[in-house]
Every structure is written in C-alpha cells, then in structure tokens.
C-alpha cells in the first residue's frame, strides 16, 4: 500500500512539473526560471512534511487523557 502511494505521489509530481515546464502561462518565464520555481517549491514542500508530523504528534499529546509516567509510575491526568 505504501509503495503504491509513493509511486502515485511521484508520478503526480512528475506530471505537474512536466505540465508546468511545457505550458506557456503568458508570463515570459524561461525554462531555467521555471526549474528554479519548481526546485524551491519542492524544498519548501519537503520541509512542510516533518512540520506537519510534529504538529499532529503535539496535538495528539495534548488530547491524551491518561499517560503513564515512566519516571514515577503514576498515571497523569491532563
């Protein structure tokens, strides 16, 4: 399942990049400028993934009702 999702995401990214590189949007963008936009868009997009995972884990931790504290062995109610 994960392999299929990964392949779909890569194929989708390649398709959108190819369409973006081939289309003429009325703005005089050179192919190098388009590659620059795609590269930095990819960098920003890849940096959002760990941030989203961290945010989801923080929200899960905030709404966890009973936690076992390994240091004291007592249950902590939040």
Largest sheet: 2 strands, antiparallel
Q: How many individual domains?
A: 1
Strand content is 5-15%
Shape: elongated
Beginning-to-end CA distance, first to last residue: 36 Å
Report strand order across the widest sheet: 1-2
Helix content: 55-70%
Low-pLDDT runs: none
Name the helix and strand elements from N-terminus to C-terminus, one letter apiece.
Answer: HHEE
Find the structural class using helix and strand composition. Answer: mainly alpha
- The beta-strand count equals 2
Average pLDDT works out at 78
Instruction: Indicate the radius of gyration in whole angstroms.
Output: 21 Å
Number of helices: 2
Can you tell me about this structure?
The chain is mostly helical and 78 residues long. The chain has one domain (2-66). The protein is 68% helix and 8% strand. It has 2 helices and 2 strands. The chain has helices at residues 2-22, 31-62, and strands spanning 66-68, 75-77. The protein has a two-stranded antiparallel sheet with strand order 1-2.
């Amino acid at each position: 399942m994960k392999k299929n999702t990964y392949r779909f995401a890569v194929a989708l990214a390649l398709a959108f990049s190819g369409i973006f590189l081939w289309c003429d949007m009325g703005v005089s963008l050179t192919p190098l400028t388009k590659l620059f936009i795609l590269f930095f868009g990819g960098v920003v997009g890849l940096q959002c993934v760990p941030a989203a995972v961290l945010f989801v884990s923080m929200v899960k931790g905030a709404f966890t009702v009973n936690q076992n504290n390994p240091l004291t062995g007592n249950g902590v109610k939040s």
